[in-house]
Predict the structure.
Amino acid sequence: MSSGPPRATVEDSEDPDDPYAPYQPRRSGPSGLRGARPSAAASSSNTSQTSSGSTASSSSTHAYPNDARSAGSSRTSDTGSSYGQNSTASDIYERSASSGTQGSYPREGGDEEPLFGGRPFRDTHDRSAAAEATSGDPSRATDKEYLYALLNVPSDASAEAIKDAYRALAVVLHPDKHNDPARKSAAESRFREVQRAYEILSDPEKRTVYDYFGEEGLKSSWSVAVRGRSPHEMQAEFERERRRKQAADAEALVKSKGDFTAHIDATALFAPSSRIPRRPPSQPRVPAVGKASQPGAAPDAPADAGIAAMPGLGIAGFTRTVTLAERISRVGCTQLIGKHGFETQVTNRTSATFSGQMVSRNGLGGGNLVGTLKTHWSPRLFTEITLSFLRPQIITTKGQFTLDANSFFSWQSTMQTLLMPPTFNITYGQRLSSKSTLTGFTTVRSGTYSLLGWGAEVPGQMLVRREPAAVSVGLTKQIGEGRGWTTQMGISPVDQNISVDYALPVLGGVKLRSGFNIGTGSGLSAFTSAERRLTENVRLALGLNCALPVGGVTLRIKVNRLGQKIALPILLAREFRSDLVVLFTVVPAAAYTALHWGVLEPRKQRRLRNRLGELRAANSELILERRQAALDALALLRDQASKKARSELARSGLVVISAVYGRRDAFPPALEVGHDAAQAASQVWSEPPALPADNEQADVQNESYWDATIAVQALVNHSQLIVPAARSKSYLLGFHDPVMGEKKHLRVTYAFRGQLHQVQVQDLAELAMPMRIHQLS
C-alpha cells in the first residue's frame, strides 16, 4: 500500500472553482490558541484554515493544507492514513534499517494483538495509543477529537473556521427552524451538543485543556488555568504534569534496563562426524604415523595408535558414529556480554544514564562503568556525551540538528586515547519528495588517522580499534505501518559494498525483515528475521544470518520484556551450508504459517467474537442511544441534504449516490461501471431518501453497516467535501457506529460532472472529494 496517492490533478487548470484543480490554501495568521497546542509537525509549515459558510452564503470556501487532497484512496482499494506524509526526514531515517533501529517501525492505530491474547502493553497503559480502539470505546471522556469531528473541522482549525462551522450547523439545527414537535425536540438536543462544542473550542483556555486531556479534563479544577495565563504558560504546566505522570508510571513498571548477550558455539550439533574430535579438545592428539617415522615414540606404541586418535576415525581407519550426547557436550558459550543500567531525568531537557558493562571471552573478561548525558537544547537540536569511567576510557559524543522539515544533520565522535585523534561519523539526510517518505542520506566516516604526527606513534601493545575511512550513500522509504525498504552503497579502501533490506508485516502480527550485502572485501551475506509479540509485555525475534566466504550460518534469538533484553547468537556452522539455511528458514516459516491459519487465526476469531459480544452486550443501551441520536440527526439533515443535492445536480457538481459506513465485508454491492451517474443521482434525490429503520424495527444486534448517504451529502459545500483524518467518522453528525469494537470503513459512491466516482477509506483516514482517481473508467 502506498503512503498516499499523488495530488489528484491530471492537467493544470486556471478555474479557481474547479474542485479538480490544485488547492491554493490561504495562510492563516497566528492565533492566540495555536501556541497552546504543540505541533506534531515540526515537519509542516502550513497552517490549516477552514471556512464553512452557512447555507445562505454562496461565497464561503474551504482552505486546507496542500497535502489534504492527496490522502484519499484509490477507487476500490482501502486507504489508511497518509503514512509518513507529515514525518520529518530525520524521523524517516531513524525508522530505517540503516539507522540501527531495525524493525522499530511506528505502529499506527495500536500494535498487533499478542500471540497468546491480551492487549499490547502500550495500549493497556497509554490511553492515546490505540487510535483505532477509540472509535469503539464507549466513553468519550478522554477523547480529544470528538468535538472537532462534530463541527467537522481540523484539530488545528482557526477560531474563525470554528465559528463558521458552528454557524452553518446552527442554521440547520436551531429548534426554531422546525415546527414538528418530534423534530424540534431532536433539533434542540443536537443544537445543545453543537453549541457546547463551540463554547469549548472557541474559548482558548478550555480548548487547551480539551486538547490535552479531553472532556474529562474539563471536569477538573485547574489552578493554573486562571485568567491572564497565556496558552504557552498553560501548555508548559500541562506538559510538566504529563511528564511527571509518565515518569511515575514508568518508574513503577520498569525501574531499569538490561541487555544480556550470550554467543553460543553449536557447530558440533550439525558438523559431520569426521570433523568432530574424539578426544576432548584439551587433550593432545597423537600423529597418525608409525613409530618408524617418530624418533621420540615409545617402542611399545602400536602402529595404529595415531589412526585411532584421529578425529572421527576408529580402529583401522573406520569412521565412527558420534552420539548426540557427545555433540551436546561440545556446545558451549564463547562470549558473554552484559549491560545493566538506569536512566534518570535531571531537568526537563537533560537526562542521565548510568550503566555497568561486562564482557567475558574465552576465559578472559573485563568490565566498565559508563555514563551518558543527553540534552535536548531545542526541538531541533540534541546532543549526547558518553564516558567510560574505567579503562579503557573512551569518550563518545553525538548529536543531531534538524535543519528543516525535509533535512537533518547528525554527527558522532569517538576518542579512544589521547595518543590519537578522534574519529568522526557525519550523516546528512534529505527528504526527496513532498508526496512520499523517500529520503536520501550520505554518511562520511573518517576512520582512524594521524594529524600532523598526532596518532602516528601509538604503542603496538595498546588495544585500539582501527577503522578505515568510508563513504556511503543510500535511500530509505517507509511505505506504511511496519513496511519499508533501505538501499545503501559504501566505498572504503578495503571494501566496496551494496546492501538492500526490506521490511513488511505478515500473518497479522509478524514483522518480517530480509536483506543482503555484497562487497569486494566483505563477500556476500544475507539475513532474515521475524518478530512477534507473544504476550502483552514479551516480544520474541528469530533471525538467521549467513555469509560467504567467511561468517558461516548464525541463528539469532532475542527476547524483550519491559526493557530487559536477552540475545542468543548461535553459531550453527563456520562455513556456508545451504541445508542449514533451508532448515532454519523455510521449515519454521512453513510450520508457523500452518500454525497461524490452522490454530491461531481461528482461535483469535473466536476470542474476538466473544469479546465483541461482551462489549456490545455491556453497552447495548449506549448503542441504542447513539443510534437514535444519529436517526434524529438524519431527520434534521434530510431537507438540507436534499436541497444541496438538487443544487449540485443542476450544476453537475458533487452528488452522493450512496454512502455506507461499517464493516467492509458486509457492504451491499456497489454500482458497476457503465451506470449513468446523473440518472442514478437523480433517482436517489428525486424525493428525500428514506431514513434507516428505527430501533424498534431494526435488528440492531446484527446490523453491520450504516446508511450515511444523507449525512455525507449534508457535508458537501460548493462541490467539495473534506473530512480530516485521525478521528472516527462515527463522531460526525448523522453517523452511527454499527459494529462497536471492529475496524470500520466508509465507502462513498458519487456523481461529479456526469461521471461515476467511488472511494473507500478507513475509519481514521482523511476523506477528500472529488478526486480524479476516484473516477470509475
